[in-house]
Write a structure and sequence with these properties.
- This protein is α/β, with parallel strands linked by helices.
- About 35% of the residues lie in helices and about 25% in strands.
- It has 13 helices and 18 strands.
- The strands form 3 sheets. Strands 3, 7, 8, 9, 10, 17 and 18 form a 7-stranded mixed β-sheet that branches. A 6-stranded parallel β-sheet has the order 13-12-11-14-15-16, with helices on both faces.
- The chain is globular and about 75 Å long.
């Protein structure tokens, strides 16, 4: 039949593509039990895709804060060096830190949480074949590679006019921002507090909340970040380095009724300050004895670790509160498949608006391994995003 003949042609074309991409250059991380980090560019085989898998030629893989610990662990990057052949970055790890990473010692591990590219080969299933030539974003933990073989379930399929660069950050930041709002609704809160709010993720969260009418309190550390978010349309922005921070935070929480916070900092007293402000708002009209504080549950989820010092809680927020961790993948695991698909589709539909990368710097493999560049993206500062383009250069 004509359809069968067309299918045979498709398979022959696909077979030709597979033959062309049997090798790939890929970054790996290794920390030895003697305390040496090596990030190494190696040439490895590209697996032949199984029926439900595709091979993606990667053109854009962001270097996210969440990639830092898998890549470098606790290595001292101020002492990093690059090999003469430009393929291996080496840095020392203090012996006292090795027990913290015992489970990964002496193992060679792939790196790169997410990225995007074009499907150049596919398995035999109809769904996989249908993705040939499409721009897709992938989430694998092994995206710092020229060619990535992944199951189709690990992909977001983008519109034909979306570039891989635009699609590079489709998972970690967009789904985290959407997940924060979904968590708020699932747990019965009506407003949010977010720290490190001028980050790429924070800007996405502001766009979502403005679009959906969700009150959002933004906590930042610099006046220029206040100005940035205010220009974007944010109504409540407070500066944690201001002398009036606690008063400003109280006013913002009072205005919004926020009882849920997502904290990217992790250490210090910020989580405690947020809970205390929520309690002060919740108890402001209390009369008589108020031994156990306000009845409304006050929750802070720590989802990042910009500050690895201890989280200090000064117990001034009653007895109805919680501090816990929040991870994107565990949150998504609580949702049914149709809801996850709905979130994926929203990311694809709004990748050039709500979820657009504000600015980016593209790096080759060699540039990504250069110590001076590593220091820049390891700083995890607010602003542009560094994007590895494995097929550039």
């Amino acid at each position: 039949s004509s359809s069968s003949a067309a299918s045979d042609v498709y398979k022959r074309q696909n077979h030709d593509r597979i033959k062309k991409v049997n090798k790939t250059k890929q970054l790996f991380t290794h920390i030895s039990s003697q305390g040496e980090l090596n990030i190494t560019l190696k040439e490895v085989d590209v697996p032949k895709p199984k029926p439900h898998e595709i091979v993606v030629q990667m053109h854009a893989a962001p270097i996210n804060p969440s990639d830092m610990w898998p890549m470098f662990g606790p290595a001292d990057l101020s002492k990093a060096t690059l090999s003469d052949d430009k393929t291996t970055l080496t840095a020392p790890v203090h012996p006292g830190m090795l027990p913290r990473i015992k489970s990964r010692l002496d193992q060679t591990l792939p790196i790169g949480n997410e990225g995007a590219g074009v499907v150049v080969a596919a398995g035999d299933s109809e769904k996989a074949q249908a993705l040939l030539g499409k721009t897709v974003a992938v989430l694998t933990g092994a995206c710092y590679t020229q060619y990535c073989c992944v199951p189709i379930q690990a992909c977001i399929v983008h519109h034909d006019d979306t570039t891989p660069l635009a699609a590079a950050s489709s998972f970690v930041n967009p789904l985290t921002a959407l997940g924060m709002v979904e968590t708020m609704r699932m747990e019965g809160h009506k407003a949010l507090v977010h720290t490190a709010a001028a980050s790429s993720l924070g800007i996405m969260l502001n766009k979502i909340c403005l679009k959906e009418g969700v009150p959002l309190v933004n906590i930042v550390r610099k006046q220029e970040q206040v100005d940035l978010l205010t220009k974007l349309g944010a109504k409540y922005v407070v500066n944690s380095t201001s002398e009036t921070f606690k008063k400003d935070l109280y006013k913002a929480i009072d205005a919004t009724g926020a009882t849920l916070a997502f904290d990217a900092i992790g250490g210090g007293e910020l989580a405690s300050d947020i809970l205390s402000a929520m309690e002060a708002v919740g108890s402001k009209d209390a009369t008589g004895f108020n031994t156990y504080g306000s009845l409304d549950n006050k929750q802070v989820y720590i989802y990042g670790g910009l500050d690895f010092s201890p989280t200090t809680l000064n117990r001034a927020f009653g007895m109805t509160w919680g501090v816990g961790g929040w991870l994107l993948m565990r949150f998504l695991g609580k949702l049914d498949a149709s809801k996850v698909a709905e979130l994926h589709q929203r990311v694809a539909d709004e990748i050039n608006t709500t979820f657009a990368i504000e600015s980016s710097v593209e790096l080759t493999f060699e540039e990504a391994l250069t110590p001076q560049t590593v220091v820049k993206y390891f700083a995890k500062s607010t602003g542009g995003k560094y994007i590895l383009n494995p097929n550039m250069g």
